[in-house]
Amino acid sequence: MRPEFHDRHSLTELLHRELPALSGAQRTLALHILGNLERVPFLSATDLASAAGVSQSSVTRFAARLGFSGYPHFTTGVGEALLREPAARAPADRFEGAAPGTPYTSVLQHEAHALAQLGPLLGSDDFGRAASLLASADHLVVAGFAAAAALAVHASLYLSRLRPQTNIHVALDAALMTQVTHWNSRDAALLLAAPRPASDTVRLMQLLRRQDVPVVLVCDPTNLAVLGPGEVTLVVPVTLGPTTAIPAAMLTLTSLLVDAVALAAPERTRRALRTFEEVSAGVQLFARTSTTGDAAPTSEQ
């Protein structure tokens, strides 16, 4: 019989209740699952066993211990629980359910926790692989739709200074559909997705897979459950207020990923930044404040 849980919170509570009674491989597996819930629905029993450093039989026994009829039943249950988490709720529902008063302290605490969790992610092999893919691609596509569009614009602005052939897309329009037929495995895409899965994001992911374009997916857990993993997947929680999403941790991760791309090709980066400063000075792209307090053209940012 399937255990009673309805979302991420009740699933993690179940796993934490089991921990004191577990030892050896079963405890190791439980701890790995707690830290990688978003990936579990997409892993075979063999893949999960390898990632956790346990045997496949340990994975099968663990699923049975939790009350599942088998490992496929377990992964289905985890996926459904992640899809039901509060992050998938619409703003109207969140606003109606918000506690009276201002929620600012709670929102800040949640996002501060998300920022603190970036440390291990930044030191991971996945982060290094993401930077390498984005740095070496012939053509780089940066895309984000709906609320993630602003994140995509931010990333594209800085990436386009560092490397050629970088394009931004914030709508699945005719221009994008025309270009996608030319993309291939030598290219790469940086796809940002949060807080709710947009239909255009799902469609673009399908098109990128069809063209064999490696995707660096930066998303929250809800989007991962819908989109499935990319070539490299970096999962970052997004804090939700009564009406808005606060993706401070995701913005920070994206900015640091741009820096990692720069560091992956240092000579190219030096040349590109020098050229950018020369061109921006020539056209007086930026303004500086003069001693009189008036704005004067400058190349300084």
Task: Tell me about this structure.
By secondary structure, the protein is α/β, with parallel strands linked by helices. It folds into two domains: 8-83, Arc Repressor Mutant, subunit A; 103-264, Rossmann fold. Helices cover 55% and strands 12% of the residues. It contains 15 helices and nine strands. The strands form three sheets. Strands 2-1-3-4-5 form a five-stranded parallel sheet, with helices on both faces. It has a two-stranded antiparallel sheet with strand order 6-7. Strands 8-9 form a two-stranded antiparallel ribbon. Strand 1 (140-144), helix 10 (149-162) and strand 2 (166-169) form a beta-alpha-beta unit. Helix 9 (125-136) packs across helix 14 (248-264). The protein is globular and about 70 Å long.
Characterize this entry briefly:
The protein is an alpha/beta fold. Helix content is 55%, strand content 12%.
Q: What is the fold named in CATH at topology level of the largest domain?
A: Rossmann fold
Number of helical stretches of at least 4 residues: 15
Mean pLDDT: 86
Strand order of the largest sheet: 2-1-3-4-5
**Helical/strand content category:** alpha/beta
Tally of distinct domains = 2
Summary keywords:
301 residues; alpha/beta; Arc Repressor Mutant, subunit A; 2 domains; five-stranded parallel beta sheet; 15 helices; 9 strands
